[in-house]
Specification:
heterodimer; A: 6-stranded mixed sheet; 4-stranded mixed sheet; 50% helix; 13% strand; globular; B: 325 residues; mainly alpha; two-stranded antiparallel sheet
Amino acid sequence: MKFTRREFGALAAGASAMALSSCAKPGAEGKPNEIVYLTSRPEEQTQVILDGFAEAHPEIAVRVQRYPFKQFLQQAEVLLGGGGEVDVVDVDGPLITSYSRRGYLQPLGERLGQEFIDSTYLEGPREDGYVDGEFYAAPMQSGGVVTFVNRELFEAAGVTPPPGLRDLDGFGDDELAALSEQTWTWEQVVEASRTIKQRTGKFGFLINQPDVAFQMFPFAESLEQPSVSPDGLTSDGYLNSAKWKQVGRFWHDVNNKDEIHPKGLTTDETLPFFQAGNAALFVAGAQYQDQLGPMSEQGEMDLDVAPHPYFEGGRRVNTSGSWAMGIGRNSEKQDAATEFIRFYTGPEGSKLWTKITGRPATFAAREDQLNNPENRKFPAATKLLAVYESDRFGVSRPKTVGYLELEAVVTSTCADIRNGADPDKALENAVTVLDRQLEKYRRR
Amino acid sequence: MPRSMIAGREAPAETAGPTVRRTPGRTPQRLRGSRRSRGRRGLLPLVLLAPALLGLVLFRLGPMVGSVLESFYAVSFAGGAQKVFVGLGNYLDILQDPTFRTSLRVTVTYNLIVNPLVVALALGLAVLARLPIRGRSVYRMLYLVPIGASVTIACVLWRVILDPAQGLLNGLLRALGLPAQPFLTSREQALICVVVIVAWSSISLWSLFLRSGLDNLPQEVTEAAIIDGAGVVSRFVHVTLPMLRPMLLFVLVVNTSANFLIFSPMYVLTFGGPELSTHMIMYEAFRTTYVYLDSGRAMAMIVVLVPIIALSVLVQFKALSRREA
């Protein structure tokens, strides 16, 4: 087989074109006003807001890049850290500091305007968006954890359940305040759980996310114990403090000594486990009312809802701050991206979003939720309790540039303690590992 | 291959056609033409190989060089995130890091257990599959079932089986009146569980290779051994195994390389725990990249892993070739 000069030239040109096209910037062929939105939210949650935005801003198209929650942080890291074209990205609240320090996010404050920021977002979630005085991410939702109660198991064990929404005559602030004052301590939860375990063989309580750090921080916060130093760069003296060790012993004992909390379950498995009647209390986000409420209404579960427990002598706590939205560092369509964020997290979008997640981050969505007559009956009133509790007792997760490292280390340490490791030793090891990782932020 | 042989092979095609009279000191026209044509032919393999070579450079060589270079850099947060050259700093740092040292120990321990186990079981299955027994075809089909599941799928499947609270295996143990086991939640049992899962998902594939190796062994040698009065065990040890050595070496080397790079069981099942008992190097490198956001350090870990794999392969080569000599 022989090649003529022309054939050879054509081959070379073809190969070059292929090579060059493979090197072209991804998405470079996108429409002029099309923005890329990176999210882990399922389509059924985001579609209603995307439709609303398309109606309000027909000139801006949104291309959604969706990744499963488990892979989302890695994907975001690859795309934001590399040259990926991301205009708008979902950011977990505590990661805003880390992302902004790395230059992954563009400042948002000036684009949204100070007046808009102050008049739109609730104080707690709003503060999470600031890093060194600059606003980087607008909150989509806030926290709000409650305790779902399976009264049937309490009755079977002959134990009085914690006071809940079903004991109230109404769901105004006065009634919710009265309920809040009767919140159970963790000591009461343990005592009741032991009896339930003994008499029914079922577990006393269940944490919704027992395999990650998210619900471990409120234990320590209830004892007024921070996990890292105020500058966020040291864990020695904090994560291995006497109070964190008290938390460690509590978590160890409920899983190993008393066996009133199940081992081995992951976040995905806890809701069905509770729905199947295997645990008496389920400490989880208020949004689970969407799954558990219908069960109560259809008589499949004798359900009640109580506030989040706290340690005796400690302070009342609830979660605050959650996911936010920012503009990716490589975005060249900042105006369109800002409009999208303004709509999504602003009064209009947040009302739609809160209807789905039940955890408002804006004044408008909170008012909407409080004034909605649908929420003035049980079990929908769970949302009102979550708002009440989060407003008054909400504590954000630790604010540190090394939050990812902190979360990973606390997650694995609490998993080890749950599996039977000595809590004191595990927390000392955690400090060694974490401070080694935080060293890079101290490096000059 | 000697050049003369290549020339010899090409000669008939080149000299086909009218005979050219050679004049000393002058290159004949026909030969000059042939040289051009040879030049084009010399380019042709290159052109045809170019896409593959380009792929190798882009997707293998490039990332390898990139990884080594990256391992000399770290991120400094003084005045914004900046990459700074740290020389061997990452290497010195990981060698002093107790977590990395633990992951190195766990990776080596895991490989010392899993590789001989997988090869031995695969060989056993291959031998059994060749026995002239009734229902052999059913057995041959059944033992190939795990090939259909990747290690990741196998992990998901075994997670259900090994769940301490509601798992199938503990249900079975309880039904037999035996105590339930913690399996993946136990520091003592987790690594063994990972070994079992990986072995389960990989022995079928390797036994296929070994079975084809056994099928291709010359029967004459075995028959000669039978005539010489060698028993079944003696034939297997002194005749079959030595002849199967090249295939065993291949299986061992590929399996070992894959197992040094194992990642899915930790990502899906154990997250390196409990208490780092299953914390292997690739998982630590993944965490360092995506959780600790320190890719330079992660690259240093992977670069350290390469000579370890190379050494283990070399030892295997030496061990199996020495006997051959």
